[in-house]
Design brief:
Length: 742
């Protein structure tokens, strides 16, 4: 039902109802109170009657909706059945087309062949079942022997328990002092043994610490001289050629620089100038913090000396934080990733790990440049061999690498290593290197990595800076070694004292035990006898245990053999099942081809029946939808009638209250609004009611209103009540529509 149309209808009924109730109210004013009560009872009965009609219409509507839902489900089911029947019909048609005599003959032949396969598989299953039976027999025999061995072991165990109990009783016969003395002796001997081991361990630690002090002293004596003598001096011509090239890397300037640098021969000449001192031939750990400090300070001093010759006033720095970052980077992106920068021959390496550099720069939020050298690796006949890791090797590796970067860096590298050393505020064209700190690390292949970091307050890479005096680093190494030696000596002294006390306790316990043994010889004899019996019982137990283990092993082997045979049987059964399934499939194919006409006829009949069922279900759905529409219309009409009855009842109640509660003065003062009542009544009709017949009815009702002052007062009151009830009816209609369309 059209919502707009229903609103108009409700408004008309509301106005008419208000007008009628006003007329009734005028009559009631002249009538008795009993008449008013009767009117109220009548309107209330009408409300109850119309609400009952609404409930009945709602029930009819719900039943119709259920019928529609059921019919829709039937249509869906019938449609699915048509789809399935159509597919079955297509399959039957295809089967009919394939049912040629040649195909039937071929399928029949396949059945015969598969029957042979099934027979063979069945024979294999029978044979394997025999194997399983034999294995089960062997397993049962092994189980019996294992059970017997277990019983023997239990008996031997009981004998051991009995002998142990006897020994416990014999030992209990000794005095508590005897037992205590023995325990004291055992504890004393154990403590003495532990103390002796601790003394031996601490003595070894002292020996190692003394050796470390000797090595550190040698480093202190030699490293200062090495730092002062191991410098690289560049010629004025080289510096000029390098500046020209870095300012303009043309082929002409590159050739001039290569000519002045003299290439590999000059590198060898520089390497031969490295001071070799026997005091440096001490084995060290390249990742040791003290060694790291010495190496980075040594490398930075070499580089800063070169930068000074070049005319630069800004120097590189060295710090513990930069070294830690370098070690972490090399481990993560070279060692852990098996990244061999030079390879095994020098020409098959992966080069710099650029992705790793980018990632680590992001992690530290700074700029990073990396130089790399042969480090601890010496190139011999095109193959790399790892040299012994001594302080001499490490210092020489750093010296040789930096020399090589200066004078033998032509070709595809375009002197990039030299550029990284002599640029200021930028490295290889990348800005952001205004405070460079160097970290040195060696990868697991022996190659050296020189990481150049731009240190900031945010990344803390310049924190824990080293003094660039290499003598300080060497002295720290000696100080640490001496402290370790002093600690080892103190520990050795404590352990030696403990050993002396422990040995004295052993002697005292032995004396106490000897005294008690002399006074309790008989008890000791009983204990000795019980111990002998226990030893015999334990020997018998070990023999029974060995037999039990042997039988258990045999049982396990028999079980494994049985399991293997059963697995083979299951495999043969699976093969047989597969062959039977294939045979059944082939037989079904023959049956389908042979009975193609009957299968097609059945599929055709099923399809036609499904279509007929769908047609019936569709018709039932249409009928149910018609019933639902009727029920919906009846429900709407019943609800409208109920709302009108409620309006009439509400107006009647308001009128009754006004009539019973008003005074003569109220009616006289309200008389002044009589003219306004008529005007408002006509305006109400013009605004809400749109049908001309309704206008006429409204006018007629107004014409019948009394024109006295008192009556005008009552009419004004009734008109206002009617207008309020009209608004109420319109609002209630909106609620009714929500319920209807739920």
């Amino acid at each position: 039902m059209n919502k707009k149309k229903m609103i108009r209808l409700t408004a008309l009924v509301g106005v008419a109802t208000a007008t009628g109730v006003v007329a009734e109210a005028n009559q009631a004013h002249a009538a008795t109170t009993t008449t008013t009560e009767t009117t109220n009872q009548t309107t209330n009965a009408s409300v109850e009657s119309t609400q009952a009609a609404v409930d009945a219409a709602q029930s009819t509507f719900d039943t119709a909706q259920t019928s529609v839902d059921s019919a829709q489900a039937n249509v869906t089911s019938a449609s699915n059945n048509v789809t399935s029947a159509s597919a079955a019909l297509s399959s039957a048609i295809a089967n009919k087309e394939a049912a040629t005599s040649e195909n039937i003959a071929s399928a029949t032949s396949a059945v015969s062949s598969q029957a042979v396969v099934v027979a063979s598989a069945s024979q294999a299953v029978s044979e394997q079942a025999g194997v399983v039976s034999a294995a089960a027999s062997v397993q049962a025999s092994a189980q019996a022997e294992a059970t017997s061995a277990s019983a023997s072991l239990s008996s031997s165990s009981a004998n051991v328990a009995s002998a142990t109990s006897a020994l416990s009783a014999a030992e209990a016969a000794l005095t508590s002092d005897q037992s205590t003395a023995a325990n004291n002796l055992s504890a004393a001997e154990s403590a003495a043994s532990s103390a002796s081991a601790a003394v031996s361990s601490d003595q070894a630690a002292v020996d190692n610490a003394q050796a470390a002090v000797a090595s550190a002293q040698a480093i202190v004596d030699a490293v200062a001289e090495v730092q002062s003598s191991d410098v690289i001096n560049m010629s004025v011509a080289y510096i000029t050629a390098l500046k020209n090239y870095l300012a303009n890397p043309s082929s002409t300037n590159a050739a001039a620089l290569q000519e002045v640098a003299k290439g590999a021969d000059y590198v060898k000449e520089l390497q031969q100038k490295f001071k070799s001192d026997a005091s440096l031939d001490v084995v060290v750990d390249p990742s040791d913090p003290t060694v790291q400090e010495a190496l980075s300070v040594y490398a930075v001093n070499l580089i800063n000396h070169l930068r000074n010759q070049y005319g630069l006033t800004t120097a590189f720095g060295a710090s513990a934080n930069a070294n830690v970052a370098a070690i972490d980077f090399v481990k993560k992106y070279y060692d852990d990733e098996d990244w061999n920068i030079f390879g095994t021959t020098g020409s098959d390496g992966k080069g710099h790990n650029k992705n790793g550099l980018d990632a680590y720069a992001d992690q530290l939020n700074t700029s990073i440049a990396e130089d790399a050298g042969s480090g601890l690796t010496t190139w011999v006949n095109g193959k790399a061999t790892m040299a012994t890791t001594t302080l001499h090797n490490l210092l020489y590796a750093v010296y040789s690498d930096i020399a090589t970067m200066l004078f033998d860096d032509g070709g595809t590298n375009n002197w990039s290593h030299a550029q990284s050393i002599f640029e200021d505020g930028t490295i290889l064209g990348t800005d952001g290197f205004n405070n460079v700190y160097l970290g040195v690390a060696f990868d697991k292949y022996g190659y050296a990595h020189y990481e150049l970091y731009n240190a900031t307050e945010g990344n803390h890479l310049g924190n824990n800076a080293y003094s660039l005096d290499v003598q300080t680093a060497a002295q720290a190494l000696l100080t640490n070694a001496q402290a370790s030696l002093a600690s080892a000596k103190a520990s050795l002294q404590r352990m030696t004292t403990n050993l002396m006390v422990a040995k004295a306790a052993v002697v005292a316990a032995q004396n106490q035990l000897a005294a008690l043994e002399n006074s309790s010889a008989n008890d000791l004899v009983a204990v000795t006898k019980a111990r002998t019996q226990l030893a015999s019982a334990e020997t018998s137990y070990q023999t029974a245990l060995a037999t039990y283990k042997q039988k258990e092993e045999a049982l396990k082997k028999a079980g494994d053999n049985l399991a293997a045979a059963q697995a083979s049987l299951e495999a043969a059964q699976a093969t047989l099942a597969t062959a039977k399934a294939k045979l059944a499939e082939l037989e079904e194919t023959v049956a389908n081809l042979t009975n193609a006409d009957q299968l097609l006829a059945a599929a055709q009949a099923a399809y036609e029946q499904a279509v007929a069922n769908l047609t019936t279900a569709t018709g039932n759905l249409g009928a149910a939808q018609v019933d639902l529409a009727k029920a919906e219309s009846q429900l709407a009409l019943a609800e409208d009638t109920a709302e009108q009855a409620k309006v009439r009842a509400a107006i009647a109640a308001q009128v009754d209250q006004q009539l019973n509660g008003s005074t003569a003065n109220d009616r006289q003062s309200a008389g002044q609004d009589a003219t306004s009542l008529k005007t408002n009544g006509r305006a109400l009709t013009a605004t809400v009611a749109t049908a001309s017949a309704a206008k006429q009815k409204q006018g007629a009702n107004q014409g019948r209103l009394p024109q006295t002052d008192a009556d005008n007062q009552e009419a004004s009151t009734m008109a206002l009540v009617g207008l309020g009830m009209l608004g109420m009816a319109t609002g209630l209609y909106g609620y009714k529509k929500k319920k209807l369309t739920k």
